[in-house]
Design goal:
The complex is a heterodimer of chains A (253) and B (590). Chain A has 253 residues and is mainly α. Chain A contains eleven helices and no strands. Classes of the chains: A mainly alpha (253), B alpha/beta (590). At the A-B interface, helix 3, helix 5 and helix 6 of A face helix 1 and strand 5 of B.
């Protein structure tokens, strides 16, 4: 066995066990999967005018976005905060495993959950919501949402590195839910008061959902590149912050 | 084993996405506005001004050329979607004061003016064009509502244009006079009035009793009566007499508090027509906004008209400040302001000058929202138009898409991103460049009277009911003109005209020409060579003396100060006063 394969195995094992440990936490799995699905069925399908797939399609994008944000933010923020508190992070850093394996494992778990949510919501949309999209739109939306987990994972990482394990769940909720609402993920952004519509520009979730809606020609009509650029800038900024905070955390230990 | 799981998962995922349902009908793909060939569609997202206010709705649904509904979000609809790119959508503009003939309505639409209110013109033209306005057929011209023939005194303002029009001189005739106008197809009644108290009276006017009688007759017969005034006392008396609106403002005096209060309280309106007055006083706005880099839609004739000035130029510049102040006070007091250009008078052209007027209103400190209303909902309200002026359910889908926010940058109106008329996307047809004319011989009359370009013909003011006359004939290699110049028409003329191109509307491009040379002899006296720019009926003149002996005369083109050399439509050789005979030969361009 070459050392390269060994390290690949480390990455795989860490990812697998992270996923298993999360999977065995029903308190995480159930809300992560059920909330977006139930909300979507409720607001996107049941309340949607009959015979019209357009509201169901619009809401599919926004609730997918809402769905993928959750696991990314929660998995990073809560488990890193508790790993720090319980000394696991220190132990893992002492082991030969690279830190990147630890972070990528969390990312992989977030992606798996994101994929599950996408599968659930797409199925609900197709079966109950009469949503009919072209293959490139279905696939494009799925890929966009998977990639879109990155900024939220970074937000989770930042919170996990800075918050105590007791504060983390509360703070994440405090950020997650208002951010979803103010980005127009629950109700179309055009139904929000004018000031809130303008504030929506602050949130990465707004830009991600607008990109998704653009695939369906249902967005507000701003340039895709603008949304993309803002998402990239936000992600870059968050990465930088995480690096700074991570150094401080290591230094303190 | 692991590999099987991975491959299995991937296969399942693939199957999932393959099985996801696809639409049967093609999705309404967002199409470029220009490609759509229908007057039913959804346009959005846009910022939408409905004629009265900015709306929260972002999408407009148009069916069969009419606004069917506004939507907050993209409606679920089979209609094609036009991408509004978050640009600004406003109703097609209404020019509240024009005089339309020829291609005026086409020129107007090319600038996004989708409706015009004609304040005096040929009633036959009005009737011919009126029919189109009821429907939403595809068209290349603006809708017209009009006064038809105006109401004026014998020899009053309105009679000087050479068109024989009926006049009124006593109150008893009012009822019949109004009835005749309505029978001819007038939509409303326009009256010309100058008070005896006015400091300047340019032409005879009907008296106050007749004014009152005509306004009353109009009301009895169920139409609006609007009044042309040029000074403060006339405005006061017209409003007191019950006029629904004034079709000009004035700069003779500051507007009185009493008039302001009355006009606001009784909902009378005013069309200040600042652009045409700017042309009498300041003469800068067209150079600033338009002529540095003329918009491509402007025809050469329109450019000539924008460059043309009212003769005297003696009115002190402060008068324009007074006019602007009056306008501001009227807006402040809540008087309904309507934007109107008075095109195609000097300093104006159809379509484009309404945009200039809106800029002038804004510069007179009228709030921008009110400026936008002045060319949309305000004229609709004032004239009771139920088809245009708003983007609301049931109104015509006459719309302008603007690439900038007009509240921030009003001049974005000069280059609308798209124009819709009756829900059809209007493609602006740019005027063709004028054919350039080269130097050299135009006509030597060796065999006949033909010219190298255009044609020669006798011309006199008899065509405008004047008393002059002219005849031309070819004789032994020269052109002989017999005629007489007699007073009668305001600008008497008699002689021979060379129309430089097949079309008087475009003329020829004289940019490469420095002067005109010709041989002439005839009844001795002071002769006159008139040059006309396309679109202008006001000649520029050069005088020269003629004797009984042949002489060669050269007139430099530069002598015609103000001539639009890119569009010279006609040169006119006029004989002297009284009876004359002259011979013309060897006309050359230098």
């Amino acid at each position: 066995m070459t050392s390269g394969m060994t390290s690949l195995a480390i990455y795989q094992k860490e990812a697998w066990y992270d996923l298993v440990s999360v999977w065995r936490t029903p308190g995480f799995v159930l809300p992560a999967l059920a909330f977006p699905l139930v909300f979507y069925l409720f607001f996107g399908v049941l309340f949607s005018p009959s015979g019209s797939g357009s509201q169901a399609a619009y809401m599919l994008v926004t609730y997918s976005c809402f769905g993928i944000m959750g696991p990314a933010m929660f998995n990073f923020a809560m488990s890193i905060a508790s790993d720090r508190a319980q000394g696991w992070l220190t132990l893992k850093r002492l082991s030969p495993m690279p830190v990147s394996a630890y972070l990528l494992a969390k990312m992989a778990t977030s992606l798996v959950f994101a994929l599950l949510i996408i599968l659930l919501l797409f199925s609900a949309a197709a079966l109950f919501g009469e949503v009919r999209l072209y293959q490139h739109q279905w696939l494009g939306l799925a890929l966009l949402m998977l990639l879109g987990t990155v900024p939220f994972a970074l937000i989770g990482l930042l919170l996990g590195l800075t918050l105590s394990d007791k504060a983390a769940p509360g703070v994440v909720n405090l950020l997650y839910l208002p951010m979803a609402f103010l980005s127009g993920l629950w109700l179309p952004v055009t139904m929000l008061p004018h000031l809130m519509q303008q504030l929506a520009w602050l949130w990465p979730s707004y830009h991600l959902s607008q990109l998704g809606l653009k695939l369906l020609a249902m967005d507000q009509g701003h340039a895709a590149l603008l949304h993309l650029a803002l998402l990239l800038v936000t992600s870059a900024g968050l990465t930088l912050l995480c690096l700074l905070v991570f150094r401080r955390v290591i230094g303190a230990k | 084993m692991k590999a099987i799981v991975i491959i299995g998962t991937a296969a399942l995922l693939l199957m999932f996405f393959v099985l996801l349902p696809q639409p049967h009908a093609p999705l309404p793909a967002s199409s470029a506005a220009a490609e759509l060939d229908s007057n039913s569609f959804v346009l959005g997202p846009v910022r939408l001004f409905d004629g009265e206010q900015w709306r929260d709705e972002r999408y407009i649904e148009v069916r069969d050329g009419r606004v069917s509904q506004l939507h907050l979000a993209k409606p679920d609809s089979q209609l094609p979607l036009i991408d509004g790119n978050n640009q600004w959508l406003i109703p097609g503009l209404i020019d509240g004061h024009v005089h339309a003939w020829g291609d005026a309505l086409q020129q107007a639409l090319n600038f996004g003016v989708t409706t015009v209110l004609d304040m005096f013109g040929d009633h036959q033209f009005l009737v011919a064009q009126k029919a189109a306005r009821a429907g939403t057929e595809r068209t290349t011209q603006a809708d017209i509502y009009g006064a038809g023939t105006l109401v004026t005194a014998p020899k009053g303002h309105g009679t000087q244009y050479g068109m024989a029009i009926p006049v009124i001189d006593a109150p008893e005739q009012a009822s019949d006079f109004v009835a005749q106008r309505l029978a001819e197809g007038s939509d409303f009644i326009k009256i010309v009035y100058t008070s005896p108290k006015a400091l300047q009276r340019f032409a005879p006017s009907i008296d106050l009793a007749t004014l009152q009688a005509v306004i009353t007759a109009a009301k009895v017969q169920g139409v609006l009566a609007v009044v042309h005034i040029a000074d403060s006392p006339s405005a006061q008396e017209a409003i007191a007499a019950g006029a629904d609106g004034l079709v000009h403002s004035f700069f003779s005096a500051p507007v009185s508090a009493e008039l302001l209060q009355r006009m606001a309280a009784e909902q009378r309106f005013i069309i200040p027509t600042m652009t045409v007055m700017e042309g009498m006083i300041v003469q800068q706005i067209n150079d600033e906004l338009l002529l540095q880099a003329p918009p491509p839609q402007l025809t050469p004739a329109a450019i000539s008209s924008l460059q043309q000035r009212f003769g005297n130029g003696l009115i002190p510049k402060q008068r324009y400040q007074l006019l602007a102040r009056n306008t501001e006070q009227m807006a402040d007091a809540g008087v309904l302001l309507l934007a109107g250009s008075d095109a195609p008078n000097p300093n104006t052209a159809h379509g484009v000058s309404l945009l200039v007027e809106m800029v002038l209103l804004q510069r007179a400190a009228v709030p921008t929202l009110q400026v936008l209303q002045s060319a949309t909902s305000a004229p609709a309200k004032a004239f009771g138009l139920t088809e245009v002026g708003y983007l609301r359910s049931g109104f015509k889908a006459d719309m302008l898409l603007l690439s900038q926010d007009p509240m921030q940058q009003l001049t974005t109106l000069l280059q609308p991103a798209a124009i819709w008329k009756n829900g059809w996307r209007h493609q602006v047809k740019l005027p063709a460049a004028n054919p350039a004319i080269s130097a050299g011989l135009i006509a030597d009359f060796a065999n006949d009277v033909t010219a190298r370009s255009g044609a020669l013909a006798a011309s006199s003011d008899s065509m405008m009911q004047g008393r002059s006359s002219a005849e031309m004939r070819w004789q032994q290699g020269v052109l002989q003109i017999n005629g007489a110049t007699r007073p009668g028409f305001a600008y008497p003329w008699a002689g021979v005209a060379w129309q430089t191109a097949d079309s008087m509307e475009t003329g020829s491009n004289f940019s490469g020409i420095t002067g005109i040379q010709f041989r002439i002899r005839g009844t001795p006296g002071q002769y006159r060579l008139d040059a006309f720019s396309a679109g202008s009926f006001m000649p520029l003149s050069q005088h020269f003396a003629v004797t009984a002996d042949w002489q060669t005369i050269e007139v430099p083109l530069a002598a015609f100060n103000g001539l639009n050399t890119e569009a010279v439509s006609m040169l006119l050789w006029n004989g002297p006063q009284g009876e004359f005979q002259f011979e013309l030969d060897n006309i050359k361009l230098l």
